[in-house]
Batch of 2 targets.
Target 1
Amino acid sequence: MTDAEFTQHFYSLIAGAVAGRSVPVHWHDDKNYKAYTDNSCIYVPAFEFSRMHAFDVIAQALLIRVGALKREQVRQLLGKRNIHNRYLYAEIVRATRLHAGILPRAFCENAAIKHFPFTTDSSGQSYSLAGSKEHFPAFPEFLGTLRCLLVLNNSLPDEVSTPELKLQKKVTAVLTEDEQGDSEESIILKLLSKKQIFAAKGRVADFIAKLLGITGGGKPQKKPGSGGGVELPMGNVSMGKRKGKFVGQLSDLSVEVVVTKDSNEAGSHIYPEWDYSKRKYRADWVVVDEVDPWRENAESVAIMSEILQPPSMTLKRKLAGVGLSFETHRNQADGEDYILDRVVNYFVDCRSGTTPNEGVYAHNMKTRRDLAVMLLLDISGSTAEMEESGGLSIHHKQMQLAYHLMTALHGLGDQVSLYAFHSWGRTMVRLVRMKAFKERCIDSRIRNRFAMLEPVGFTRTGGAMRHAARKLQEEETGVPYQLLITITDGFSYDHGYEGEYGEEDTKKAIEEIRYQGIGCLCITIGSNQQEEKLKNIFGKASTLAARDYDDFIHNIRPALLRAVRQTRAG
Amino acid sequence: MKTDIPYYREVRNEKDVFRAAWQSRRAVMLKGPTGCGKTRFVEAMAAELKRPLITVSCNEDLTAADLLGRYLLKGGDTQWMDGTLTRAVRMGGICYLDEIVEARADTTVAIHALTDHRRELFIDRLGEQLSAPPEFMMVVSYNPGYQSILKDLKPSTRQRMISIELGFPPADIEIDVVIKESGVDEASAQDLVRLASAIRELDIPGLPEVSSTRTVIAAADLIKAGLSLREAVRAGMIGPLCDDPLIDRSLMQLVSTYIS
């Protein structure tokens, strides 16, 4: 491992310690920015590698810890470059004073932090202070840069819309350049923040309105969770012509992450991607990060109560006979072997005149649970689509399915892990930890994570599955039956991952996973995707396209058994 | 029996709860992570109440006979030997079962009659029924982080006890404890506790446990004995945590950041 990779791993460690949740750290090479965060990851400048960035990482992690970059707050800061640094300064000092007990003494006693003359108690107060005429001390470099558009981009609310790529290209490119400009304010963003701009209806107006968090075109806000997915590209877009149609080729807004062949050991997970048109892999193409679930406002208690009901006995019975192996039961009245200690005690009891215990045998019975299951839950924006008749969205139904499977298998004694996934381009595939293998209880801490899941982003299924399978293998569960169960709506879509390309890569990933001796099962529930198409996409994997929950219960056992037969032990 | 009361710094009201449980003849279940002071707490309370303390480290091979007693062969005769629990009952002491979830369920049920309204111990091999004196107390401990579906206290066992939850103390109390236990200077104690607090925020694969108060005190002891801060932290706090070389190296880098 190179020094850069080790340093990256160490920065991720310190970021997690300060932020209070898993926060991957990456190198970036954009000279316009110092260290920054998008609320899920932290990015430090690779071109300044010779300098230690521990303080930079701590500063960004503190912003995450105190919730300084909530959408509402960041929208207020959009376009106001003159107060970005002041806001960062005030918030990082506030966070330092609040959490001094977990910070290095050197950071707390840094002169810039220690002698900051103002005190704020909330992000709102920090914003007010930043916008005031108070004189601030010189801004220390290690406090980083604020990237409003990046934070907002990764937390766009969900609505299906057919993109008008040409116009969006111009809008987002202009917004990005404008934000990087030298003047104190972004004139364009200031103009766009005026509601009168959106008097006319239009998809681009809606898009910008969503970004800025205001109603567009006088239309009422849709209720959260309504509409379909965030299949809205943004960032710089160049137009190309393919198969007679204009297709947007998107570069995502966020960042080109610096990766190397050994980045896997440093904490970033790099995977190839199958390019079916060239019939070869694109090496080191996809970057996968593991993060903890987070959203600004947790899902409503009413919805979570409906989703997180215990699984039925019917489901448990269906799963009970899957993946069993022999185990030795001691102290039995009958069996294949003697237990020497018990035999000696038997004769001692006889000689002492008391009734001996006849359980002196060891007996092998097929009762051991030998199944390790990795559950992978698609939480892209397309799953937020509601049924026409109302009720739960696909996302909620999938969450309920995942929770029931996880709880039922765990209750039967199987080793279970659950991760959610979504992506924003090939360098930002996120696996969200819901329950790791080593977490042995399904308690309120794990249930609360479900309330923190937000269906946003896109679906780069291949990268997510490759990483999930790797985790399953590296976990050393010590069991012969290993399954990867993917719960998805069946639509693989991301920047550079459309149509047949995405489908073929997903198929290839499943092939690789089965080759490793891991069984695959793909489950959809209430999805509009056709079953034949699913079988074509997921190839040889066991597929279960359930119409509803009852259909799922009816068909889960044969589907699971097909998947178990694919395993090395099966 | 020791007459000195071992040092224990109360965090909330755990001493009051323990005393109330003893006076009302209830069993106590101590819950908390490893190295947070459960055993020290029981030792302190036993000394304060002037009762002998008998400790049993539970494991999977612990049988009911180990607790109640058994006949041993001596020469050509058999002789009865009281188990640890029987001895504790006879002398009216405090019996402390450490890590009770490690014991098998058929062993654990041996304590049921002692921990409910009956407060009796039936030794079937002697045909003897022992009534526990008022001063007798049963205390069990376990680490909830080690629970699994296979190793868990049955509800019938749990509900026979009063629960006291212990955790790592707040930073200011932990600093005092480290100084008192090791004699190290305040600045070093503060740095050690900051580092431990940061490590406790971590939740990563390859790090099954976090720095306990016990390891912080161990590092402080080593500093007092003349080791450098960095060497003491490596040997006392980081080394015992995990065996993964990458995490070990990263944690040592964390030490460099936290400890000047």
Target 2
Amino acid sequence: MLINGCEIDVRSISNIDIFNIQLDIPEPKPPLFTLDDGRVIENYHHPLYNHSIMLYASYKATEIFKNIIKRSVLDIDSKYLLNNEWRIMWENMCLIDHMKPEQEKFAFLLYHLFANDSDREKLIDTVVLTELRVSKFFNSISYVRQGLDIRDANIKNAVNTGIEQLPVIIGSLQIVNPLDEYKVASESGIPWNEWLHGSMSLDDKASAIALNRLDKLVHLHQEDAAQIEAERKSKK
Amino acid sequence: MPARKTEESNESEIVVKAESLPENLLVTANGTRLLYHKNRIPAAKIQEYLTTIFLKTNLDEKGQVKEGSTKEQLETVQRFLNLIKSIATYRVFELFDGLPEDNSWILPLQLAPLETDSQRFDFSNPKHLEILYVQNYALSTEDLEAVVDIINS
């Protein structure tokens, strides 16, 4: 791929590998607060906690992006490291951070070539399965319920289970949760190992996930319509 | 007693020359003049460093937000000191007038290298000395707003 005039060799990587990282800092927990009656509760409104949560998301996204670079960028020509602006930055980083020569290519990619959010997103969307890629397929097929797009139509008998996934977002891109991939692979009869390391392109995987979600949505609407009809008949 | 200037004196000798100051100059609360160079270190690196410092300062080893034992005001000061240290460490700032000729300021730092950053500094290296001076003497809490403005600009 070409970024800011630099040509780099990249390969697509599995989302499960991106999520599998060790973070040095634990996820923030709210401070404890003792009520007048002696009960101890967690104070989710503490300003320091809220600020920590916000910064932790940024920290985690950066660590995940580092992991993406390490796993997806195969090589970059050393000639790009001769850039004047980069030479000044690198010399300073060597002076203070005691960076080693073997770390330069990685640092160049992280802090110089992919310094802007838009360039980071370009790399992520090229090598990782994102919700953006899935949504392109998901929105490309029209399905209506009584004239209304089923993506917008309400489901009257929806049940809120309260179960939700915590998304991983880098810049404006959300990474597809590996559990969604696993479910689609299982239901499609594709061995998990084949899904992860086989010849399927990111577009193939994205379209499979999109169609699976659309199929489930259609099914939900069918069940909802059937239940409404059953309620109508029982009232007669 | 200074000699009285006569009509014959060369005028250029008594006119104070106007100093042309660069745009990237910050005059700190204690009057130290600092040049700042944002392109010397990647902005992403500074941001990453500040985020890590904030989280490590305010969370314990289990991730619990530290509260109660430390007053909020002290935390703010501590965070700012870390902020200054990290920015200066990355040499965003440079002494416009160079290091003071009197180097007695070095001794206290040599005697009490409490911070890990100080410990890895080489006191015989002029570049390291400049960083140490900016960290410990040039900037103070009163410069908070100006420093943050520079980082965010």
